[in-house]
Amino acid sequence: MSQEAHAQPNYMAIFWWLLGLTIAELAVIHLPISKMMIAILLVGMAISKAAMVAMYFMHLKFERQTLTWIALSPFILCVFLILMLIPDLS
Amino acid sequence: MSQAAVMHASAEPAESPLTPESWGKLGMWVFLAGDAMSFGTLIVGYGILRGISSNWPVPSHILGINLTAIMTFLLICSSVTMVQSLSAAQRGDRSGLTKHLLLTILGGLVFLGLQAYEWTHLIGHSLPEAGLSFSTHLFATTFFVLTGFHGMHVTGGVIYNSCVLVACLRGSYGAGEVEIAGLYWHFVDLVWILIFTFVYLL
């Protein structure tokens, strides 16, 4: 088993980003803007945080592309699931 | 042994895009992809049921957002201690590995304690007072299924990390195994980040 060396990410910088975005999420729900805008901001921040955890803490940014495709596969299937269930909403 | 068998045994495994640098890491990623589909299905199901319901409550009016924000903070901290334990393992720093892995396990245990407190409060007070008990409203049903499924994963992660810590202290596990355990723990953190937004904040 070989361990390929890669640059060590700045984990504390990622921590401060995650903490800052969590605080921003708590602030956003109190903003006097439309619910749709709040939802877009919250989903955007959640996806950014999840991507940071996957890319830096889980080292996906430094792995070969095969692992990235394996990691993305459930999200692609979830998009299909949403598209298939959307007719039920009406 | 025949000549062909000898040649086969000494041959290098063929390289392909799927040949990983670590089979254990590939195995964990495949498992996590399957697990992500389970969580994805539950979150999408939650969203669809919420979308078709005419009397879905505003989650932030019933659920304790501040407590959950602390739980989110805890999991983020435990992810940092997990990567620090990996760094320590890669440096061969045994005491650093032990300290950070113990802190990660402690973070998971405190998270579970806070979740137990949250559930107790919700079942005993908040949900019955709002007329939203487990058996009468899909809000409570989906909430407990989703957060309970995640809580089971945290429990599994705490047990997994404890086993890895013991194996590291015995000298039978190294940085490779800590990295694989870390993948699972960060996945649990990642899923909570999504649950926090989709179930508590939206």
Describe the structure.
The complex is a heterodimer of chains A (90) and B (202). In chain A, 73% of the residues lie in helices and 0% in strands. With 90 residues, chain A is an all-alpha fold. Chain A has a domain at 11-63. In chain A, helix 1 (11-28) runs antiparallel to helix 2 (35-57). The longest helix of chain A is centred in the last third of the chain and has 25 residues, at 65-89. The mean pLDDT of chain A is 87. Chain B has 202 residues and is an all-alpha fold. Chain B has a single domain, classed as Cytochrome c oxidase, subunit III, four-helix bundle (Four Helix Bundle (Hemerythrin (Met), subunit A)). Chain B has helices at residues 3-10, 23-52, 59-62, 65-91, 94-129, 138-170, 175-201. In chain B, helix 2 (23-52) packs antiparallel against helix 6 (138-170).
Descriptive terms for the model:
heterodimer; A: 90 residues; mainly alpha; 3 helices; B: 202 residues; Four Helix Bundle (Hemerythrin (Met), subunit A); 7 helices; 82% helix
Largest sheet of chain A: none
How many helical elements of chain A? 3
Q: How large a portion of the residues of chain A is in β-strands, by DSSP E?
A: under 5%
**Low-confidence parts of chain A, pLDDT < 50 over ≥5 residues?**
none
What is the averaged pLDDT score of chain B? Answer: 87
Assembly status: heterodimer
Structural class based on helices, strands and sheet pairing of chain B = mainly alpha
Question: What is the count of helical runs of chain B?
Answer: 7
Number of strands of chain A: 0
Overall shape of chain A: flat
Which term fits the overall shape of chain B?
elongated
Helix content of chain A: over 70%
CATH architecture descriptor of chain B: Up-down Bundle
Question: Going by CATH, what is the homologous superfamily of chain B?
Answer: Cytochrome c oxidase, subunit III, four-helix bundle
Greatest contact pair? Answer: A-B, 43 and 53 residues
**Uncertain runs of chain B with pLDDT below 50, 5 residues or more?**
none
**Run of helices and strands of chain A:** HHH
Note the main sheet of chain B.
none
